[in-house]
Design a protein that fits this description.
The complex is a heterodimer.
Chain A lengths: L20 E6 L3 E8 L2 E4 L9 E2 L1 E4 L5 E3 L1 H5 L8 E3 L21 E3 L6 E4 L2 E3 L1 H20 L5 E6 L5 H13 L4 E6 H8 L8 E8 L4 E9 L2 E10 L4 H15 L7 H20 L2 E7 L5 E7 H25 L7 E7 L6 H11 L12 H13 L10 E4 L4 E5 L3 E6 L4 E2 L1 E7 L9 E7 L9 E8 L12 E7 L5 E7 L5 E4 L9 H13 L1 H35 L2 H18 L4 H14 L1 H16 L4 H5 L1
Parallel strand pairs in A: 1-11, 11-12, 13-18, 15-19
Antiparallel strand pairs in A: 1-2, 2-3, 2-4, 5-6, 5-7, 8-9, 9-10, 13-14, 14-15, 16-17, 19-22, 20-21, 20-24, 23-26, 24-25, 26-27, 27-28
Helix pairs in contact in A: 2-3, 4-9, 5-6, 5-7, 7-8, 11-12, 11-13, 12-13
Chain B lengths: L3 E2 L1 H14 L4 E8 L5 E8 L7 E5 L2 E5 L4 H4 L3 E7 L2 E7 L5 E2 L5 E3 L1
Parallel strand pairs in B: 1-6, 2-5
Antiparallel strand pairs in B: 2-3, 3-9, 4-5, 6-7, 8-9
The chains are: A alpha+beta, B alpha+beta.
């Protein structure tokens, strides 16, 4: 007979009505699947009793795919068909992947997301990820003895909607029903049961193999909210290995190693790092090509000293995240450690010193995210009653719209909790304008060119009106999974252009970090750039208006001298218009305004007398 | 009248209760449902009901409501592993017929 699990009181499943749900940590290096069994979140192992599935997929000529350890083993033999760290390519175009030159893959650029040419044909990162998910799904269904109702899949907090959508697509392709995408730090906090803990602010310090993320979460009234996220997309355990590797080179007086020797020494460096977690010192012995023998002893103290600045590099984003959240280290009630690299004693010590408290380390830092995702999946599948907590996440970068002059207007500021909807009204720029182009951008900078373009669409059928009288309401909506939809509606006529934004792929974690940093670094420049663009837009509008007026009434209302004077003011403005000095433009605009005062007055008088012509006083008095 | 747990099952139940952090024991019972008429109920118990019958097996308190008892009297609850799957197995002497999967049964 079927094997049963203990349910929560009153929640026994009816026969054949399984509510089997899993949490999946789809990682860059390793992936895991976990579920709640008998009320406890557990990671599911494979037949060999191993929990971690290396996120490596190898395609074979006959079209089949090997996933995990088997694929990892042949990585160096068959590099072109063995895809590692595919998560870095999710939802990204070729131009976004800067490090392409170092990678052995045959990339195919295609609209949206890059693809990889393998012996089994061209594959997209979504398909590659789906292979990993299929293995986890199969493992889960065999472990749980039934079909899954769904899965919660974790993604980095800074994943944009393109990356999230790509993750969802991969799950769909693997035959998984996605109950929800969950931010990794939030999952970690849930795993530690912080949702049942005292209210307060918690930090999640995630140092993985190649990336560092810090998140600040607030728990209040049982509700989780991500206050801020920050990180460094090029900092992780690999950098610690690299430091040891360089130290070996120096101490063994080596130079110019072959690729094989380099790989060998890096492996030894990694082993030494892991040794030093439990031992005060470690011996590194290696035989390189040409029978050169390396034999050095590395102490913990030396290792700590050489990695000091790596630790310091994790503290910068940490401080920034705290500042974004408007908090200081003293406000943090607990610190959760995630990622294998947090096993290093010096990492734990540095975190302890920074936050002045012992971080939470009793759950396996490699598994904690999957465990939390499983708990969330269990709730969403309806296996847990009363405790209906809800999770709030934030959007990592502001979502805005392009306005005249290539300026960004932020509609939803970053770190806004989701789901969220915001609307703003805009108007037309020109008389008789019947269409409006809506350009959705993402980023912290003031100019559109410095932000990331997400989508463009048009609202047509705006009734012809004087500039500034149309009212166009643009609504931005971010759903619980962090996906964005934008709609525009002209309020007087009701014409609407509700366009679902196709996720546009292409933003890397590095880009997000860079964009955030740029936003702060260039704040002053951006302010000036904005002032300049605003002046330019205003000047352009003024020039056009004066030109129109001159065409219409210049000859009748002005003498030649006045016309020349206005023309020369216009020329002066033209000359500075495309320069960089917004004050010069401002002065020229003022000069032109001055020069046209009497002309404007004359036109006003003229239109009044036109309007009055043919009417008599008695009519006006009525 | 008795309900028993194998030693292994009792050990797992204790473990789950400890990790869950609350609960007085295990509640066993039956419900009318499923393709063969009856289905088992296996839940954590947070409190005993006045009418409940209580059994103790290897240190685990087992609560059974009086209506369910005739269907499961004499049952032994085991914890086993089948391939990657593991969980509780009901060895119920009262069962005359069960559906293919064994999740629901007739007496």
């Amino acid at each position: 007979m079927a094997l049963l699990q203990i349910s929560e009181p009153g929640l026994s499943a009816a026969p054949h009505q399984h509510r089997l749900a899993v949490g999946i940590d789809l990682g860059t290096t390793n992936s895991l699947v976990a579920t709640v069994r008998n009320g406890i979140s557990v990671v599911l192992n494979d037949d060999a009793g191993i929990a971690l599935l290396p996120s490596v997929v190898r395609y074979l000529a006959e079209g089949a795919a090997q996933v995990g350890v088997a694929a990892q083993a042949v990585q160096s033999v068959d590099p072109q068909n063995t895809i590692v760290s595919v998560k870095r390519f999710m939802g990204r175009g070729l131009k976004d992947v800067g490090e392409v030159v170092d990678l052995p893959y045959r990339f195919v650029d295609s609209p949206g997301m890059l693809q990889l040419r393998t012996v089994a044909g061209v594959k997209s990162p979504v398909e590659v990820s789906a292979e990993i998910l299929k293995v986890l799904r199969d493992r889960a269904e065999r472990s749980l003895g039934g079909d899954l109702v769904g899965a919660v899949i974790t993604v980095p907090a800074y994943f944009d909607d393109a990356q999230r959508q790509a993750t969802k697509d991969a799950a769909k392709l693997a035959g998984l029903n996605v109950l929800r995408l969950l931010n990794e730090p939030t999952a970690a906090a849930i795993a530690y049961g912080l949702d049942n803990a005292a209210e307060g602010v918690y930090a999640v310090y995630d140092l993985g193999g190649g990336t560092f993320d810090i998140s600040i979460l607030r728990l209040s009234k049982g509700v989780f909210e991500v206050l801020a996220t920050n990180g460094d997309s090029a900092l992780g355990g690999d950098d610690f290995d690299q430091r040891i590797y360089c130290w070996i080179l120096e101490n063994a007086e080596l130079s110019q190693l072959s690729a094989n020797d380099t790989r060998l020494l890096l492996t030894y460096a990694r082993a030494a790092k892991e040794q030093l977690t439990d031992h005060a010192q470690t011996q590194i012995t290696a035989v390189l090509s040409g029978d050169k023998v390396v034999n050095v002893t590395l102490t913990r103290e030396d290792f700590y000293a050489m990695t000091q600045n790596l630790l310091a590099r994790t503290m910068q984003p940490t401080r920034r995240a705290l500042r974004d959240a408007g908090l200081s280290g003293d406000d943090i009630k607990g610190v959760v450690m995630v990622g294998g690299s947090t096993r290093m004693p010096q990492v734990q010590r540095a975190v302890q010193e920074f936050f002045k408290q012992t971080p939470l380390t009793n759950l396996d830092p490699d598994k904690v995210v999957a465990l939390g995702a499983a708990i969330q999946a269990n709730v969403l599948a309806g296996n847990r009653s009363a405790d209906d907590w809800l999770l709030l996440d934030v959007i990592p970068l502001s979502l805005g719209i392009e306005t005249m002059g290539g300026l960004t207007e932020k509609i939803i500021p970053r770190n806004t909790t989701i789901p969220s909807a915001r609307a703003q009204e805009f108007t037309t720029y020109k008389d008789g304008q019947t269409a409006m182009s809506i350009h959705v951008v993402q980023g912290e900078r003031e100019l559109v060119v410095d932000c990331r373009s997400l989508a463009k669409f048009e609202l047509r059928g705006i009734p012809a009106m004087v500039a500034g009288s149309a009212r166009i309401r643009v609504t931005y909506q971010v759903d619980a999974d962090g996906l964005l939809s934008v709609s525009a509606r002209e309020m007087t006529s009701g014409v609407e252009s509700a366009v679902t934004i196709k996720p546009s792929y292409g933003l890397s974690e590095g880009d997000i970090t860079r964009m955030l940093q740029d936003g702060n670094q260039y704040a002053r420049d951006d302010m000036q750039a904005r002032a300049l663009r605003e002046q330019q837009t205003e000047a352009g509008q003024l020039l056009e208006a004066v030109e129109n007026a001159l065409q219409q009434d210049g000859a009748t209302l002005l003498d030649t001298a006045s016309q020349t004077r206005i023309r020369s003011s216009m020329d002066a403005l033209h000359n500075v218009l495309n320069g960089n000095d917004h004050l010069a433009i401002k002065r020229a605009v003022e000069a032109l305004n001055q020069a046209t005062v009497s002309f404007a007055q004359a036109r006003m008088d003229q239109s009044v007398s036109h309007a009055l012509k043919g009417h008599n006083m008695s009519e006006l008095e009525n | 009248m008795s309900i028993t747990l194998t030693e292994n099952a009792a050990k797992h139940v204790q473990n789950f209760l400890t990790k869950r952090g609350k609960g007085v024991g295990l509640r066993l019972g039956v419900r009318t449902s499923g393709c063969s008429g009856m289905a088992y109920k296996l839940e954590f118990a947070d409190a005993a009901d006045d009418a409940d019958l209580q059994f103790n097996s290897h240190g685990v308190t087992v609560l059974v409501d009086p209506q369910s008892l005739p269907y499961i009297d004499g049952m032994e609850l085991d914890y086993t592993r089948e391939g990657l799957n593991e969980g509780f197995k009901f060895n119920n002497p009262n069962v005359k017929d069960a559906c293919g999967c064994g999740e629901s049964f007739k007496v």
